[in-house]
Amino acid sequence: MADVKSGPNPLFLREEDLRQGIELLFYAYRDFTAEPDAMLAKIGLGRAHHRVVYFVGRYPSITVTELLGILQITKQSLSRVLGDLVEQGYVAQRTGTKDRRQRLLTLTEKGLELERHLSDAQRARIAQAYRNAGAAAVEGFRTVMLGIIDQEDRARFQPAIPKR
Amino acid sequence: MADVKSGPNPLFLREEDLRQGIELLFYAYRDFTAEPDAMLAKIGLGRAHHRVVYFVGRYPSITVTELLGILQITKQSLSRVLGDLVEQGYVAQRTGTKDRRQRLLTLTEKGLELERHLSDAQRARIAQAYRNAGAAAVEGFRTVMLGIIDQEDRARFQPAIPKR
DNA sequence: GAAATAAGTCAACATGGCTGACGTAAAATC
DNA sequence: GATTTTACGTCAGCCATGTTGACTTATTTC
Protein backbone atom coordinates (compact mmCIF):
# COMPACT_ATOMS: atom_id res chain seq x y z
CA MET A 1 0.00 0.00 0.00
CA ALA A 2 1.14 3.54 -0.66
CA ASP A 3 2.24 4.91 2.67
CA VAL A 4 0.49 8.18 2.07
CA LYS A 5 -0.30 9.18 5.64
CA SER A 6 2.85 8.03 7.42
CA GLY A 7 4.22 10.36 10.08
CA PRO A 8 7.24 12.61 9.70
CA ASN A 9 10.51 10.73 9.26
CA PRO A 10 13.68 11.76 11.07
CA LEU A 11 14.73 13.91 8.09
CA PHE A 12 11.51 15.95 8.29
CA LEU A 13 10.38 14.65 4.89
CA ARG A 14 6.99 13.10 4.73
CA GLU A 15 5.72 10.98 1.89
CA GLU A 16 3.25 13.75 1.21
CA ASP A 17 5.98 16.37 0.84
CA LEU A 18 7.70 14.24 -1.77
CA ARG A 19 4.49 13.65 -3.67
CA GLN A 20 3.93 17.36 -3.67
CA GLY A 21 7.39 17.91 -5.10
CA ILE A 22 6.67 15.48 -7.92
CA GLU A 23 3.41 17.22 -8.70
CA LEU A 24 4.89 20.70 -8.58
CA LEU A 25 7.31 19.63 -11.28
CA PHE A 26 4.60 18.05 -13.38
CA TYR A 27 2.20 20.99 -13.31
CA ALA A 28 4.90 23.64 -13.61
CA TYR A 29 6.43 22.02 -16.65
CA ARG A 30 3.04 21.41 -18.23
CA ASP A 31 2.04 25.06 -17.90
CA PHE A 32 5.49 26.37 -18.68
CA THR A 33 5.53 24.72 -22.09
CA ALA A 34 1.89 25.30 -23.05
CA GLU A 35 2.23 28.85 -24.33
CA PRO A 36 5.29 28.43 -26.57
CA ASP A 37 3.80 25.17 -27.86
CA ALA A 38 0.70 27.03 -28.99
CA MET A 39 2.78 29.67 -30.78
CA LEU A 40 4.94 27.06 -32.43
CA ALA A 41 1.95 25.15 -33.70
CA LYS A 42 0.88 28.22 -35.67
CA ILE A 43 4.11 28.25 -37.66
CA GLY A 44 4.33 24.50 -38.10
CA LEU A 45 7.10 23.90 -35.60
CA GLY A 46 7.20 21.94 -32.36
CA ARG A 47 8.71 21.94 -28.92
CA ALA A 48 11.86 20.28 -30.19
CA HIS A 49 12.47 23.25 -32.46
CA HIS A 50 12.04 25.58 -29.55
CA ARG A 51 14.67 23.77 -27.53
CA VAL A 52 17.19 23.98 -30.35
CA VAL A 53 16.50 27.66 -30.98
CA TYR A 54 16.72 28.33 -27.28
CA PHE A 55 20.10 26.69 -26.75
CA VAL A 56 21.64 27.97 -29.95
CA GLY A 57 20.63 31.42 -28.75
CA ARG A 58 22.02 30.69 -25.33
CA TYR A 59 25.36 29.41 -26.59
CA PRO A 60 26.16 31.11 -29.91
CA SER A 61 28.56 29.05 -32.05
CA ILE A 62 27.64 25.88 -30.18
CA THR A 63 28.65 22.68 -31.94
CA VAL A 64 26.29 19.85 -32.81
CA THR A 65 27.95 17.56 -30.28
CA GLU A 66 27.57 20.07 -27.50
CA LEU A 67 23.93 20.58 -28.37
CA LEU A 68 23.37 16.84 -28.33
CA GLY A 69 24.92 16.72 -24.88
CA ILE A 70 22.44 19.25 -23.60
CA LEU A 71 19.34 17.85 -25.23
CA GLN A 72 20.21 14.22 -24.58
CA ILE A 73 18.72 12.97 -27.79
CA THR A 74 20.22 11.16 -30.75
CA LYS A 75 21.83 12.99 -33.63
CA GLN A 76 19.18 11.59 -35.96
CA SER A 77 16.46 13.21 -33.90
CA LEU A 78 18.33 16.48 -33.73
CA SER A 79 19.13 16.42 -37.42
CA ARG A 80 15.47 16.48 -38.31
CA VAL A 81 14.60 19.59 -36.35
CA LEU A 82 17.90 21.31 -37.00
CA GLY A 83 17.44 20.67 -40.71
CA ASP A 84 14.04 22.38 -40.60
CA LEU A 85 15.49 25.37 -38.78
CA VAL A 86 18.41 25.81 -41.17
CA GLU A 87 16.18 25.34 -44.19
CA GLN A 88 13.73 27.94 -42.95
CA GLY A 89 16.47 30.39 -42.11
CA TYR A 90 16.28 30.43 -38.33
CA VAL A 91 19.71 28.91 -37.75
CA ALA A 92 22.97 29.43 -39.64
CA GLN A 93 25.83 26.96 -39.78
CA ARG A 94 29.46 27.69 -40.41
CA THR A 95 32.50 25.49 -40.39
CA GLY A 96 34.68 25.66 -37.30
CA THR A 97 38.01 27.39 -37.75
CA LYS A 98 39.97 25.54 -35.10
CA ASP A 99 38.42 22.18 -35.99
CA ARG A 100 37.00 22.14 -39.47
CA ARG A 101 34.86 19.06 -38.80
CA GLN A 102 32.63 21.08 -36.57
CA ARG A 103 29.53 22.97 -37.65
CA LEU A 104 29.08 26.00 -35.48
CA LEU A 105 25.46 26.98 -35.00
CA THR A 106 24.13 30.50 -34.56
CA LEU A 107 20.76 32.17 -34.79
CA THR A 108 19.97 34.40 -37.74
CA GLU A 109 18.05 37.63 -37.21
CA LYS A 110 14.90 35.64 -37.92
CA GLY A 111 15.98 33.02 -35.40
CA LEU A 112 16.69 35.62 -32.76
CA GLU A 113 13.27 37.08 -33.25
CA LEU A 114 11.61 33.68 -32.95
CA GLU A 115 13.59 32.84 -29.84
CA ARG A 116 12.65 36.11 -28.23
CA HIS A 117 9.01 35.67 -29.11
CA LEU A 118 8.79 32.13 -27.79
CA SER A 119 10.74 32.63 -24.64
CA ASP A 120 9.00 35.87 -23.77
CA ALA A 121 5.99 34.01 -22.49
CA GLN A 122 8.24 31.84 -20.37
CA ARG A 123 10.29 34.75 -19.13
CA ALA A 124 7.11 36.61 -18.18
CA ARG A 125 5.87 33.60 -16.26
CA ILE A 126 9.14 33.22 -14.38
CA ALA A 127 9.39 36.94 -13.74
CA GLN A 128 5.89 36.99 -12.30
CA ALA A 129 6.58 34.02 -10.07
CA TYR A 130 9.91 35.45 -8.91
CA ARG A 131 8.47 38.85 -8.16
CA ASN A 132 5.60 37.46 -6.14
CA ALA A 133 7.82 35.06 -4.27
CA GLY A 134 10.62 37.43 -3.33
CA ALA A 135 14.39 37.14 -3.39
CA ALA A 136 14.75 34.65 -0.55
CA ALA A 137 12.25 32.24 -2.10
CA VAL A 138 14.01 32.53 -5.46
CA GLU A 139 17.27 31.57 -3.81
CA GLY A 140 15.59 28.52 -2.30
CA PHE A 141 14.05 27.62 -5.63
CA ARG A 142 17.47 27.72 -7.28
CA THR A 143 19.03 25.57 -4.59
CA VAL A 144 16.37 22.88 -4.78
CA MET A 145 16.28 22.83 -8.56
CA LEU A 146 20.04 22.46 -8.71
CA GLY A 147 19.75 19.53 -6.32
CA ILE A 148 17.30 17.84 -8.66
CA ILE A 149 19.56 18.25 -11.67
CA ASP A 150 22.23 15.62 -12.30
CA GLN A 151 25.63 16.51 -10.92
CA GLU A 152 27.20 16.80 -14.38
CA ASP A 153 25.07 19.72 -15.40
CA ARG A 154 25.14 21.73 -12.21
CA ALA A 155 28.32 23.48 -13.26
CA ARG A 156 26.39 25.23 -16.02
CA PHE A 157 24.74 27.30 -13.32
CA GLN A 158 27.84 28.30 -11.48
CA PRO A 159 28.97 31.87 -11.98
CA ALA A 160 31.93 32.14 -14.31
CA ILE A 161 35.17 31.55 -12.46
CA PRO A 162 36.70 34.95 -11.70
CA LYS A 163 40.17 35.41 -13.20
CA ARG A 164 42.74 36.11 -10.57
CA MET B 1 19.28 41.64 -30.01
CA ALA B 2 18.80 39.56 -26.88
CA ASP B 3 19.41 41.88 -23.99
CA VAL B 4 21.57 39.37 -22.21
CA LYS B 5 23.80 41.64 -20.21
CA SER B 6 21.43 44.44 -19.29
CA GLY B 7 21.71 45.80 -15.78
CA PRO B 8 19.29 45.06 -12.97
CA ASN B 9 15.80 46.39 -13.58
CA PRO B 10 13.79 48.09 -10.84
CA LEU B 11 12.25 44.73 -9.89
CA PHE B 12 15.68 43.15 -9.34
CA LEU B 13 15.20 40.69 -12.18
CA ARG B 14 17.85 40.55 -14.82
CA GLU B 15 17.50 38.89 -18.18
CA GLU B 16 20.09 36.42 -17.01
CA ASP B 17 18.08 35.43 -13.95
CA LEU B 18 15.10 34.65 -16.12
CA ARG B 19 17.18 32.61 -18.55
CA GLN B 20 18.51 30.69 -15.62
CA GLY B 21 14.98 29.98 -14.45
CA ILE B 22 14.05 28.61 -17.86
CA GLU B 23 17.08 26.38 -17.88
CA LEU B 24 16.58 25.12 -14.36
CA LEU B 25 13.16 23.91 -15.40
CA PHE B 26 14.48 22.28 -18.56
CA TYR B 27 17.33 20.38 -16.92
CA ALA B 28 15.38 19.44 -13.82
CA TYR B 29 12.51 18.01 -15.82
CA ARG B 30 14.86 16.21 -18.18
CA ASP B 31 16.69 14.48 -15.34
CA PHE B 32 13.58 13.97 -13.26
CA THR B 33 11.92 11.90 -15.97
CA ALA B 34 14.97 9.99 -17.21
CA GLU B 35 15.00 7.25 -14.58
CA PRO B 36 11.33 6.24 -14.68
CA ASP B 37 11.45 6.43 -18.48
CA ALA B 38 14.24 3.87 -18.52
CA MET B 39 12.31 1.54 -16.20
CA LEU B 40 9.16 1.91 -18.24
CA ALA B 41 10.97 1.10 -21.47
CA LYS B 42 11.89 -2.31 -20.04
CA ILE B 43 8.26 -3.29 -19.59
CA GLY B 44 7.06 -1.77 -22.84
CA LEU B 45 5.36 1.24 -21.35
CA GLY B 46 6.02 4.97 -21.67
CA ARG B 47 5.89 8.20 -19.78
CA ALA B 48 2.21 8.63 -20.53
CA HIS B 49 1.50 5.39 -18.70
CA HIS B 50 3.48 6.63 -15.74
CA ARG B 51 1.44 9.79 -15.53
CA VAL B 52 -1.81 7.86 -15.50
CA VAL B 53 -0.59 5.39 -12.91
CA TYR B 54 0.71 8.24 -10.82
CA PHE B 55 -2.51 10.24 -10.76
CA VAL B 56 -4.78 7.26 -10.34
CA GLY B 57 -2.65 6.38 -7.33
CA ARG B 58 -2.81 9.92 -6.12
CA TYR B 59 -6.56 10.23 -6.46
CA PRO B 60 -8.12 6.77 -6.03
CA SER B 61 -11.54 6.49 -7.71
CA ILE B 62 -10.75 9.40 -9.99
CA THR B 63 -13.03 9.70 -13.00
CA VAL B 64 -11.88 9.81 -16.60
CA THR B 65 -12.95 13.45 -16.94
CA GLU B 66 -11.01 14.48 -13.87
CA LEU B 67 -7.94 12.70 -15.13
CA LEU B 68 -8.25 14.43 -18.48
CA GLY B 69 -8.42 17.74 -16.66
CA ILE B 70 -5.13 17.05 -14.95
CA LEU B 71 -3.25 15.65 -17.90
CA GLN B 72 -4.60 18.18 -20.41
CA ILE B 73 -4.71 15.72 -23.27
CA THR B 74 -7.58 14.43 -25.39
CA LYS B 75 -9.67 11.49 -24.33
CA GLN B 76 -8.49 9.59 -27.39
CA SER B 77 -4.89 9.93 -26.23
CA LEU B 78 -5.79 8.89 -22.72
CA SER B 79 -7.89 6.01 -23.92
CA ARG B 80 -4.92 4.37 -25.57
CA VAL B 81 -2.69 4.34 -22.51
CA LEU B 82 -5.52 3.69 -20.09
CA GLY B 83 -6.60 0.78 -22.24
CA ASP B 84 -3.11 -0.72 -22.02
CA LEU B 85 -3.07 -0.32 -18.25
CA VAL B 86 -6.48 -1.90 -17.73
CA GLU B 87 -5.69 -4.72 -20.13
CA GLN B 88 -2.42 -5.47 -18.35
CA GLY B 89 -4.02 -5.37 -14.95
CA TYR B 90 -2.47 -2.21 -13.52
CA VAL B 91 -5.69 -0.22 -13.31
CA ALA B 92 -9.19 -1.36 -12.40
CA GLN B 93 -12.37 0.38 -13.48
CA ARG B 94 -15.72 0.27 -11.77
CA THR B 95 -18.97 2.00 -12.49
CA GLY B 96 -19.75 5.02 -10.32
CA THR B 97 -22.54 4.50 -7.81
CA LYS B 98 -23.75 8.07 -7.62
CA ASP B 99 -23.43 8.60 -11.38
CA ARG B 100 -23.43 5.36 -13.29
CA ARG B 101 -21.99 6.98 -16.41
CA GLN B 102 -18.67 7.41 -14.67
CA ARG B 103 -15.87 4.88 -14.65
CA LEU B 104 -13.96 5.18 -11.41
CA LEU B 105 -10.30 4.30 -11.74
CA THR B 106 -8.15 2.67 -9.09
CA LEU B 107 -4.80 0.91 -9.01
CA THR B 108 -4.68 -2.84 -8.56
CA GLU B 109 -2.01 -4.39 -6.35
CA LYS B 110 0.11 -4.70 -9.47
CA GLY B 111 -0.53 -1.07 -10.29
CA LEU B 112 0.38 0.06 -6.80
CA GLU B 113 3.62 -1.84 -7.04
CA LEU B 114 4.47 -0.28 -10.39
CA GLU B 115 3.63 3.19 -9.15
CA ARG B 116 5.82 2.75 -6.11
CA HIS B 117 8.67 1.40 -8.17
CA LEU B 118 8.55 4.20 -10.74
CA SER B 119 8.07 7.07 -8.36
CA ASP B 120 10.69 5.83 -5.93
CA ALA B 121 13.46 7.14 -8.12
CA GLN B 122 11.71 10.49 -8.30
CA ARG B 123 10.98 10.59 -4.60
CA ALA B 124 14.60 9.77 -3.82
CA ARG B 125 15.76 12.58 -6.09
CA ILE B 126 13.42 15.08 -4.47
CA ALA B 127 14.26 13.86 -0.98
CA GLN B 128 17.96 14.26 -1.66
CA ALA B 129 17.50 17.76 -3.06
CA TYR B 130 15.23 18.79 -0.18
CA ARG B 131 17.58 17.44 2.46
CA ASN B 132 20.59 19.19 1.01
CA ALA B 133 18.74 22.44 0.52
CA GLY B 134 17.09 22.71 3.92
CA ALA B 135 13.60 23.63 5.04
CA ALA B 136 13.76 27.31 4.15
CA ALA B 137 14.91 26.63 0.60
CA VAL B 138 12.15 24.04 0.19
CA GLU B 139 9.60 26.62 1.22
CA GLY B 140 11.00 29.02 -1.39
CA PHE B 141 10.95 26.29 -4.00
CA ARG B 142 7.28 25.61 -3.31
CA THR B 143 6.39 29.26 -3.50
CA VAL B 144 8.11 29.84 -6.82
CA MET B 145 6.81 26.64 -8.38
CA LEU B 146 3.26 27.52 -7.35
CA GLY B 147 3.72 30.90 -9.00
CA ILE B 148 4.71 29.21 -12.25
CA ILE B 149 1.65 26.97 -12.22
CA ASP B 150 -1.59 28.31 -13.72
CA GLN B 151 -3.95 29.81 -11.17
CA GLU B 152 -6.56 27.10 -11.70
CA ASP B 153 -4.36 24.32 -10.42
CA ARG B 154 -2.80 26.07 -7.46
CA ALA B 155 -5.68 25.05 -5.22
CA ARG B 156 -4.55 21.42 -5.50
CA PHE B 157 -1.61 22.34 -3.33
CA GLN B 158 -3.49 24.11 -0.62
CA PRO B 159 -3.84 22.19 2.62
CA ALA B 160 -7.29 20.71 3.01
CA ILE B 161 -9.65 23.25 4.48
CA PRO B 162 -9.98 22.47 8.18
CA LYS B 163 -13.57 21.70 9.20
CA ARG B 164 -14.79 24.06 11.85
C1' DG C 1 -39.36 13.96 -23.65
C1' DA C 2 -35.29 16.56 -24.98
C1' DA C 3 -30.81 18.02 -24.11
C1' DA C 4 -26.52 17.58 -21.95
C1' DT C 5 -22.89 14.82 -20.07
C1' DA C 6 -19.53 10.77 -19.36
C1' DA C 7 -17.32 7.65 -21.72
C1' DG C 8 -15.88 4.95 -25.64
C1' DT C 9 -14.59 3.98 -30.56
C1' DC C 10 -12.74 4.23 -35.35
C1' DA C 11 -9.76 6.38 -38.60
C1' DA C 12 -6.15 9.21 -40.11
C1' DC C 13 -2.35 12.10 -39.20
C1' DA C 14 1.90 14.75 -37.02
C1' DT C 15 5.73 15.09 -33.93
C1' DG C 16 9.62 13.61 -31.95
C1' DG C 17 11.85 10.09 -29.95
C1' DC C 18 14.52 5.49 -31.19
C1' DT C 19 17.81 1.76 -33.60
C1' DG C 20 20.83 0.21 -37.20
C1' DA C 21 23.71 0.76 -41.05
C1' DC C 22 26.67 3.38 -43.66
C1' DG C 23 29.53 7.48 -45.61
C1' DT C 24 32.80 11.42 -45.58
C1' DA C 25 36.05 14.62 -44.01
C1' DA C 26 39.23 16.06 -40.68
C1' DA C 27 41.98 15.42 -36.63
C1' DA C 28 44.63 12.70 -33.55
C1' DT C 29 47.50 8.87 -32.65
C1' DC C 30 50.75 5.15 -33.41
C1' DG D 1 52.63 8.20 -43.28
C1' DA D 2 49.17 4.95 -42.22
C1' DT D 3 45.59 4.00 -39.00
C1' DT D 4 42.17 5.13 -35.89
C1' DT D 5 39.07 8.19 -33.90
C1' DT D 6 35.97 11.96 -34.03
C1' DA D 7 32.34 15.19 -35.90
C1' DC D 8 28.78 15.22 -38.66
C1' DG D 9 25.45 13.68 -41.96
C1' DT D 10 22.04 10.44 -44.12
C1' DC D 11 18.69 6.73 -45.25
C1' DA D 12 15.21 3.69 -43.69
C1' DG D 13 12.00 2.02 -40.59
C1' DC D 14 9.78 1.74 -36.06
C1' DC D 15 7.32 3.31 -31.77
C1' DA D 16 5.03 6.38 -28.36
C1' DT D 17 2.12 9.96 -27.79
C1' DG D 18 -0.07 13.73 -29.10
C1' DT D 19 -3.85 15.72 -32.51
C1' DT D 20 -8.71 16.31 -35.20
C1' DG D 21 -13.15 14.74 -36.67
C1' DA D 22 -17.08 11.90 -36.69
C1' DC D 23 -20.15 8.99 -34.41
C1' DT D 24 -22.32 5.78 -30.60
C1' DT D 25 -24.23 4.46 -26.09
C1' DA D 26 -25.79 5.00 -21.59
C1' DT D 27 -27.26 7.97 -18.13
C1' DT D 28 -28.49 12.17 -15.96
C1' DT D 29 -30.45 16.65 -15.94
C1' DC D 30 -33.66 20.08 -17.37
What is the compact description of this entry?
With 164 residues, chain A is mainly alpha-helical. Chain A has helices spanning 15-42, 47-58, 64-71, 75-87, 109-133, 135-148, 151-154; strands at residues 91-95, 103-107.
> How do the SSEs of chain A run, as a string of H and E?
HHHHEEHHH
Binned, the helix content of chain A reads: 55-70%
Overall structural domain count of chain A: 1
Computed CA radius of gyration of chain A, to the nearest angstrom: 19 Å
Question: Uncertain segments of chain A of ≥5 residues (pLDDT<50)?
Answer: 1-10
Strand content of chain A: 5-15%
Largest interface by Cβ-Cβ < 8 Å: A-B, 63 and 63 residues
| Span between termini of chain A | 57 Å
Number of helices of chain A: 7
Q: Major sheet of chain A: size, sense and barrel closure?
A: 2 strands, antiparallel
Strand order of the largest sheet of chain A: 1-2
| CATH architect. name of chain A | Orthogonal Bundle
What's the CATH class of chain A, please? Mainly Alpha
Subunit arrangement of the protein: homodimer
The pLDDT mean of chain A sits at 91
CATH fold title of chain A: Arc Repressor Mutant, subunit A
CATH superfamily of chain A: Winged helix-like DNA-binding domain superfamily/Winged helix DNA-binding domain
Structural class of chain A: mainly alpha
Q: How many runs of DSSP E, i.e. beta strands of chain A? A: 2
Shape of chain A: globular
What does this structure look like?
2 copies of one chain form a homodimer. Chain A has one domain (15-150): Winged helix-like DNA-binding domain superfamily/Winged helix DNA-binding domain (Arc Repressor Mutant, subunit A, Orthogonal Bundle). With 164 residues, chain A is mainly α. In chain A, a hairpin with a 7-residue loop joins strand 1 and strand 2. Residues 1-10 of chain A have low confidence and may be disordered. Chain A has 7 helices and 2 strands. Chain A is globular and about 55 Å long. The first copy, chain A, has a two-stranded antiparallel ribbon. At the A-B interface, helix 1, helix 2, helix 5 and helix 6 of A face helix 1, helix 2, helix 5 and helix 6 of B. Chain B binds a DNA duplex (30 and 30 nucleotides) through residues 45-48, 63-65, 73-77, 79-81, 96, 99-103.
